[in-house]
Amino acid sequence: MKGPLFYSKILLFGEYGIIKDSKGLSIPYNFYKGALQISDHPTEEQIKSNGNLSRLTGHIEQLMKQDSDFPKFDVETLKADVAAGMFFDSSIPQGYGVGSSGALVASIYDKYAIEKITVLENLTREKLLILKDIFGKIESFFHGKSSGLDPLNSYLSLPILINSKEDIEPAGIPSQSTTGKGAVFLLDSGIVGETAPMVNIFMENMKQEGFRSMLKDKFVKYTDMCVEDFLSGDVKGLFGNVKKLSHVVLDNFKPMIPAQFHGLWKKGLDTGDYYLKLCGSGGGGYILGFTEDLEKAESSLKDYKLEVVYNF
């Protein structure tokens, strides 16, 4: 057995902000992928994944019993497949902010939901919100609370524009330039990040009036402008706003940036060679970078491994 592939995702803009109704833009990242699989000779890693799937099955069963809005899943087949040793065979790094649990949730829904909403039908806003809600409930097994966006992105394999919590739509993003010097890249921090502790820090900070007004007046404002610039192809405007956003993050989200990257973050702001921002909840994993000149950024960050995600 080998299920269809589901890809990782990158939330280009909107981390933390979407909790407070900022815009967001999430794109599939096909470099990493995963699929459900059964093997005759499972490795230790695969046995661990199988145990995870077994617990996730229990979570789905609970949701079906307790939640009248939750769709029906073919739990008997799911249980039988898990008992036969099914695991999620994935190259998506965990704790890196690229949606490893999202791809898993998408693959389970795709294979076992009985009356599923498919990618082929006319995806109205209402259907997208229903999917997002279902995915959020399943993914909460991993993170405690989930927006459902990562699995949605993985399931649809389309860029998704988040206008607000109740307003999401598939987005057309400008074609990549094959000759341009600018790029969006991933910088590997070499540390695994955990979502739940970072979200807890954010929620604690939200109790402070000053933090809340910074979020609304600066963080959400610049995030929204970055999304608009990116979608309209205004590269000059985008880099101006990414720089402001990078500044706001360095000043106000320090716990989410691994300590050894504070200097590197500031160096980018001072030189203009690149601007860094959080990729997902931070705390480790990947850091997202934007540069108008990839060669300059690579030489400035020569000690680090960069993966280009998008070319301007």
Secondary structure layout plus pairing:
Blueprint: E1 6-13, E2 24-37, H1 44-66, H2 75-83, E3 87-90, H3 100-112, H4 125-143, H5 149-156, E4 160-164, E5 167-170, E6 183-188, H6 195-205, H7 209-232, H8 235-252, H9 262-271, E7 275-278, E8 286-291, H10 294-300, E9 306-311
Antiparallel strand pairs: 1-2, 2-3, 2-4, 4-5, 6-8, 6-9, 7-8
Helix pairs in contact: 1-2, 3-4, 3-5, 4-5, 7-8, 8-9
Features:
312 residues; alpha+beta; 5-stranded antiparallel β-sheet; 4-stranded antiparallel β-sheet; 46% helix
Overview of the structural elements:
The mean pLDDT is 93. The longest helix is centred in the last third of the chain and has 24 residues, at 209-232. 42% of the residues are buried. This protein has helices at 44-66, 75-83, 100-112, 125-143, 149-156, 195-205, 209-232, 235-252, 262-271, 294-300, and strands at residues 6-13, 24-37, 87-90, 160-164, 167-170, 183-188, 275-278, 286-291, 306-311. By secondary structure, the chain is α+β, with helices and mostly antiparallel strands.
| Head-to-tail CA distance between termini | 40 Å
Strand content: 15-25%
Total count of helical runs of at least 4 residues? 10
What structural class do the secondary elements suggest? alpha+beta
Shape: globular
In round numbers, the mean pLDDT is 93
What's this model, at a glance?
By secondary structure, the protein is an alpha+beta fold. It has 10 helices and 9 strands.
